Description:
The complex is a heterodimer.
Chain A: H1 12-15, H2 18-34, H3 40-55, H4 59-84, E1 91-95, E2 98-101, H5 102-128, H6 131-140, H7 145-174, H8 183-188, H9 190-214, H10 233-259
Antiparallel strand pairs in A: 1-2
Helix pairs in contact in A: 2-5, 2-10, 3-4, 3-5, 4-5, 6-7, 7-9
Chain B: H1 3-10, H2 13-36, H3 46-55, H4 57-74, H5 84-99, H6 106-130, H7 141-149, H8 154-183, H9 186-189
Amino acid sequence: MNQTFFLERTSGLHALHPLTKLALALALVVTAFIVRWLFISIALFVLLILPLAVWGKIWREVLHTTFTILLPLSVSVALVQGFFFPGAQTVLWQIGPFALKQEGLEFAFVIATRLLVIAGAGLLVVYTTHPADLAIALVQAGAPYALAYIAVSAIQLLPEMQARAQSILNAQQARGLETQGSIGVRIRAFVPLIAPLVYGALENVQERALALDARAFRSSRVKTSWRELRDSPFQRVARLLLVAYSILMIVYAIASVFLFR
Amino acid sequence: MTLTERIRNDFTTITLALIPVAIVINIVIGQIVQNVLKLPIYLDSIGTVLVGALAGPLAGAITGALSNIIWAIIFSTPTAAPYAITAFVIGILAGVFAARGVFKNIVWTIIAGLVTGVVAAIVSAPITAYVFGGVTGSGTDLIIAYFQATGANLLQAATIQGFISDPLDKTISYLVVWVILHGMSKRLVGQFPRSRNVIES
């Protein structure tokens, strides 16, 4: 699997503060879940997410990725819920013992377009924000520094470990390990593939801990960062409004469940 | 010992070094099982359970939740992110069970894995039902269709579907962690804050 996160381009969306983009994604997802209108999600996607993706020069990737993720899910949810949605009444089409019903298809449409908003809003952040910038922004907003270290070093470590997994696979296959065929054969291949990987990785843990201690990672003094984030008063206000809006929407949704029954 | 003290004792430097490695173990083993061996299970929480055993419930929970979020970022699949909640709970459970000593005994390891799988299925069901409409785009969707056709509502159908896959998956994950823990040198195990979960002091 190839990594496709963060597309380094120059755009207004790339230049926004990571937290502004996160707040925007949150507001989009919250709206898609809470507003009770059949076409809310598709409207959000077409009227907000796509224009933002064009502004960020990432619309091609956003469209391509959302459709590859969502096409199988959408087909599946349309079939399963179109035919078997509990309590659906309005029959659109009868095929043998099965009936395609309108309520089920509407539910499937809501689910599929909502997933479109989740994927689209997430990709707006992921494609235009370097993971390290995201981590720094969260630390500056009060998240523990250790959390940022964990996230960023996991992202850096992954390609290294994938390469090691590939060479273990090659080495074991050269020794005659079968990784294809019946399920029994494939289950037997599991231990020879993962044991060297895991024990190698655990050796790596000790070295990393020594390196952290040698660099006084646990010191409580404030750490400076090589990367600098740009922010603006306008963005600060926008973030505040987006987060306040999201919280109000969630409070409204919870209240409407308990109060207006 | 208060809870904050307990947490501070769990988050030593070696724990901080272990968590990113465990996250990558989750992702890479998940990929090997899915793409190379094409087995019908996930096995993407081995690192989470391992951290729960060696460094306590909160460290395990963070490993689980971040694994899903990083998976979502790196492979541009934001739809993986909602299940971070399930992964968080798996980490907590692994830590709590390990503190009760389940990893010292293989029978208790299997029981703890089964229980974790049942809880994971219950936590995942509302996510599968209300975010994904019950489907994952794989063969298990037929199970949802079948149970809805026989009168279950969406949440019930999603729970049953989880009961079919999660307990087996988590039991195997716990067994793999049992093997890893007992294959580690005592010197290495001893460096982790919860080493007494594994070896007698």
